[in-house]
Amino acid sequence: MELNVNEIILKAYGLTSKTTKLQKIGSGHINRTYLITNLLTCEKYILQNINTNVFNDPSAIANNIKHVAEYLKQNYPDYLFPASVETLQGKPMAQNANEYWRLMPFVENTVAFDTLSKPKQAYEAAKQFGKLNRLLDNFDSTKLKPTILGFHDLKLRYDQFISSLNQSTEELKHNAQKEIETALNHHSILAHYSAFENKAEFPNRVMHHDTKISNVLLAKDTFEGICVIDLDTLMPGKFISDLGDMMRTYLCAFSENETDLSKITIRIPYFTAMINGYLSEMGDILTSTEKEMILFSGKYIIYMQALRFLTDYLNGNVYYPITYDGQNLDRCKNQFKLLDELIKNEKELQDIIEENLVKKYI
Ligand code: GN1
Ligand code: MG
Fold first, then answer.
1. What would the pLDDT profile of 293-322 be if each residue is shown by its tens digit?
2. What pTM value is reported for the model?
3. Does residue 244 share a domain with residue 102?
4. Number of the ligand 1 atom closest to the C-alpha atom of 209
5. Strand locations in the chain, DSSP E?
6. Fewest 10 Å CB contacts: which of 34, 237, 240, 315?
7. Are both 237 and 91 inside the same structural domain?
8. Are 182 and 329 part of one and the same domain?
9. How far is the CA of 348 from the centre of ligand 1 (A)?
């Protein structure tokens, strides 16, 4: 039994440490997650501690999940949406002093992967995230609160990068000189984003905002997509957030932690499968402006992630945990290499997008 889950939290859900098995799972940077088993009933759950340095209003998470769960239950009762389980007292979260915890159902007979080894996984995952986007197309997104203010606001992320330059040390800036230049040189990505941000043809939608492969559950036997998980960043946003983060995390065989940059290349069959899966759900819903921004979504998210790692490096690693000095700078280099690869293959990727759009959805 891990000692860092308090008895008070377990009690809120009718559990005790003596009759509960806890295993730490997940590879996220932000929250602590456990698989818990009630040894008396053999029921399994996911228990997650919300990192309140990042999510400073945990009730916003609860609010969003509640509204979306109600809407989906009413309109799509067969859709599997793993909303939080209430405490015995009917609260959406358990609280102990300033710690907040959520309990989620464990979906049996499913697997989640950390990396993709087959294009079909990209298809299934993109279809699942696309499906959530589609089912919420008519949902009133003004009912939702931002769980992190300005989370995917590229202007804000750019401004945070500029502020980090002003407050960083000469040594860190010297180490990151090349990446700082690259960040400034890609300013046109921000300009493009700002030009579209407020257009009616580029609407706010309900976005998951964390579409990596480990946030999709696939059937254990067929590897068909079952549902998406990790709903703490479910909030209004632009469609480029979800599709873009899929490009960032599905196209390369290696993660943001890979330091051998020669390995950072793009797998075209995964791109095709991902576009296909996403458009099979969202192809009829995206506006023509959005359709023109499909490839841009990858540039936008990869650039933003590179800025976020670079900013954190310059700020002394206050946000993303590191296992060695300079890891956030390495992650930034990795993301800039990925951005280069995307741009290098732009023509071929755009052709694939157009083939898929023409084939089925126009
Ligand atoms: C964080 O916690 P995790 O690893 O799922 C971050 C994402 C980044 C990602 C990069 C709340 O996600 O935005 O894309 O790291 N989440 C938050 O690995 O900042
Ligand atoms: Mg997450």
1. 999 999 999 999 999 999 999 999 999 999
2. 0.95
3. no
4. 13
5. 20-25, 32-38, 44-50, 94-96, 99-105, 110-111, 205-207, 216-219, 225-228, 235-237
6. 315
7. no
8. yes
9. 29
